[in-house]
Amino acid sequence: xxxxxxxxxxxxxxxxxxxxxxxxxxxxxxxxxxxxxxxxxxxxxxxxxxxxxxxxxxxxxxxxxxxxxxxxxxxxxxxxxxxxxxxxxxxxxxxxxxxxxxxxxxxxxxxxxxxxxxxxxxxxxxxxxxxxxxxxxxxxxxxxxxxxxxxxxxxxxxxxxxxxxxxxxxxxxxxxxxxxxxxxxxxxxxxxxxxxxxxxxxxxxxxxxxxxxxxxxxxxxxxxxxxxxxxxxxxxxxxxxxxxxxxxxxxxxxxxxxxxxxxxxxxxxxxxx
Length: 273
Ligand code: MN
Ligand code: MN
Prior knowledge:
Elements: E1 2-3, E2 14-19, H1 34-43, E3 63-68, H2 76-90, E4 94-99, H3 105-116, E5 119-124, H4 144-150, E6 154-162, H5 167-176, E7 179-182, E8 192-202, H6 224-233, E9 235-244, H7 255-271
Parallel strand pairs: 1-3, 2-3, 2-4, 4-9, 5-6, 5-8, 6-7, 8-9
Helix pairs in contact: 1-7, 2-3, 3-4, 6-7
The structure holds manganese (II) ion (2 copies).
């Protein structure tokens, strides 16, 4: 995954974009270390770059590293992330973004919707992230999908793996027409989604047994295989994706970073189709 400046990106490319921003985390900081940890895990000699479909990403010239977005500490980062993502997308390249906490998904979805129009957003998470505000903050990592729905950036929001639905967020989900699939009805059949699809993967959708390196351990979650299978079998035109909420400061022996890297590889495989 060689570094390529934005000016040299083309429609052929899938660009890895790091978004090291965790200022909107409500409980623990640390997710800003996510992009560096995922790059290390991708490059680790303990594994290889081949996807389960048999595509060797080490030999894939269309996969490039577009570097990290330079973000400040405050909510101005939302605009900085959107601007950088729009610049990458304007080249025709597709983006696989790596957070950061889930607050990074608002500007990423803004940039994709600016190019494609309203999206079908597939959101994998233990948490609905639909708070109107959280601890006084409208751009908290607990709020991005409220902002996305208010702005009309998504025609459909499909949430999978949810297991922390509060009454307030239930009301928000009803208000916005969110299609919520709680964890206990994890889809057995391939998801069939119309329109341009954006996939947002919060690693805590998986059980903390698989992903100790996240800020919010929410028991009773999915397995790595559940998530990989959902990605591999998804039917729809995937136009972009993010993987968020890796917190390396909580990780154990890089196991969560390796899970994140695997999910990134499988998503890249779909974006290269
Ligand atoms: Mn989330
Ligand atoms: Mn979550």
